[in-house]
Amino acid sequence: MTYPSASIDSSGQRASLHRRDWLAGMVVFGVLPSYAETPLCSGPPTFFERPTPVRCSASFHRGGKPKPSSRRQESTRKTGFVFFNMPAPVWTALIVIILACFYFWRRKRFSLFVDIGIPGPKPSLFSGNLSELIERGPSQTFDTWVNKYGDVVGFYNGAKPMLLVKDLDLIKKIQIKDFGNFHGRGVTSAVNRQHPVSKLNLINVDGERWKDMRSLLTPAFTSSNMKKMLHLMDTCTDEFLEILDSLHEQEKAFEIREVFQKLSLDVIVRLAFGVQSNVQKNPGTTGMNAIVKVILDGLNEFRTGWMEFFVACFPEFSFVWKLVLMWRQCFMKLPVDKMYDCIMPIIDVRRSNPEARRQDLLQLMLNAEVEEGAAVNVHQLTVGNDGEAPKSAESTVSGRKRRCLSNAEVQANAVLFLVAGFETTSTALTFTTYLLAKFQDVQDRLRSEITDVLERDGKFNYDNVLSMRYLKPSNYRVSEILPTTHRIHHEDLSSGIRIQWA
Q1: Structural domain includes residue 441
Q2: What are phi and psi of 171, to 5 degrees?
Q3: Which of 26, 155, 196, 423 is the most buried (most CB within 10 A)?
Q4: Angle of helix 223-230 relative to helix 232-249, nearest 10 degrees?
Q5: Cα(100)–Cα(177) distance, rounded to whole angstroms?
């Protein structure tokens, strides 16, 4: 092998390198033999001489001519070369140190409830208690934990600390007195929180934005609006009873949850969008069945998706999950996007024809508006059965900007009501049916009350359903035994003992 020779002009500013062998010339970028302490290379090295890093005042560029290189560029090349060429023992030691720090940091993270004295199951360093929840199901797992650890249990949904509360006094504080600190639903869907439309729905927003959006949506659920939409449910329930009669005549076991899912979807589609779906009697023949499949795909993705699992277990790597989600959204159409595509044309038609007023949830969202910055009491965010949506004392002040829902926000919340109502309503009906079948005395008493009201009034309406004294506490009891959702806190609270959250 031959070696390059170099020369420097009288000014010392420009160097020329005569290439005899391009392989030898490449050492300019990395290391040079120890004899080459100056840019002038002369003579071959001895066999055992050790290569050492050296600064060189020349670097190659297109055309083969050298150009001056700054000290910063030279230092970066030197440092980068040394870093990637560290000996294997150094790499091993560095990896061991990083893993050890991560291990002790994870142990500290999962010692929160032990430090503050709240009992609960022992978490794993990988998934907390999430694996147990997935394997056994929330209802059975929560029941076991409450029986074993008491009315307040601390567990980890992945890496996030959560409280399971059965104490009635504490539940009242959470749901009523301190509701402003617990308005978050605690749904940790990485897909929804990164989606450009889904992140705008009521579940994923929080703080002031949640308060404003809740103020806009609350009037849609007043008693007067519910009464106007109640007649839309009559056809749905009549079809449901006919289906139950036909299934009963077959004298075969069937999955009641699937029947309740179709009933829930039929009711929600009619109440929310004013569309007759016919999804109960003619499965597979309407466009609504495609929506059913999309909803189920989305729910299954949320429950079993590997992305959701790893995001919950390792939130510290959120930047990695964001990159993966961005890549996925660029090359794949998510199930929720198909629902947005179905709803957007309906919104466009409603916007372009404001005179065609419909009595459904979508129209109420399009009509909703509130004054931006108006003070809203937290108790005004929930409408009672016998009243209209209360107005803020400051809502009559003139000159304030009116706040309405954008098309994207209407889309997001319409799909939210569709998915959330579909799953929670059908699940609650399934739980109620199971418990009524299990406790025959409760079923007989409830059936007697419903029959008496029907014989007295001839049909059900908004008022006589609410007047049933045994029906309401029965529903409450089902929600206590088998709840369908949970809440998440936002601020530290003190009640004798201060609880510090991670």
Answers
A1: no
A2: -65, -40
A3: 155
A4: 50
A5: 44
Tell me whether residue 304 is in a domain.
yes
Beta strands 494-495 and 402-404 are unpaired
Is there a contact between 149 and 142 (Cβ–Cβ < 8 Å)? Answer: no
- Residue range(s) defining the domain that contains residue 158: 97-182+490-498
Nearest partner of 312 among 500, 153, 126, judged by Cα? 126
Structural domain tally of the chain? 3
Is 170 within 8 Å of 118 (Cβ atoms)? no
Q: Flag whether 427 is in a domain.
A: no
222 & 351 share domain: yes
Q: Are residues 288 and 351 in the same domain?
A: yes
Residue 58 to residues 18, 67, 71, 287: CA-CA distances in angstroms? 12, 6, 11, 69
Indicate whether 147 belongs to any domain.
yes
145: nearest Cα among 171, 109, 119: 119
Provide the 10 A C-beta neighbour count for residue 254.
12
Last residue of a domain, one of 353, 382, 417: 417
pLDDT in 10s for each residue of the chain, 502 residues? 444 444 444 444 444 444 333 333 333 333 333 434 444 444 444 434 444 444 444 444 445 545 554 555 555 555 555 556 777 888 888 888 988 888 888 888 888 898 889 999 999 888 888 888 888 888 889 989 999 999 999 999 888 888 889 888 888 888 888 877 776 666 556 666 777 788 888 888 877 788 888 888 888 788 888 888 888 888 888 899 999 999 988 888 888 888 998 898 888 888 887 777 778 877 655 555 556 666 666 555 544 466 777 777 887 777 777 787 777 767 777 677 777 887 888 888 888 887 777 778 888 888 876 545 554 544 445 544 444 444 443 333 334 456 788 888 888 888 888 877 888 888 899 999 999 999 999 999 999 999 999 999 988 888 888 889 899 888 888 888 887 765 555 455 555 444 333 3
Tokens at residue 386, please?
């016998």
Q: Please check whether residues 171 and 232 belong to one and the same domain.
A: no
Is the domain of 307 the same as that of 233?
A: yes
Whether residues 151 and 217 share a domain: the answer is: no
Are 218 and 177 found together in one domain?
A: no
Task: Give the distance from CA 465 to its chain's centroid.
Answer: 35
Residue 377: C-alpha distances to residues 220, 380, 393 (Å):
18, 5, 10
Coil, strand or helix: which one is 161?
Answer: strand
Q: Are residues 62 and 102 in the same domain?
A: no
If we measure between CA atoms, which residue out of 271, 19, 102 comes closest to residue 5?
19
Residues 261 and 345 in one domain: yes
Domain boundary residue, one of 57, 85, 113: 85
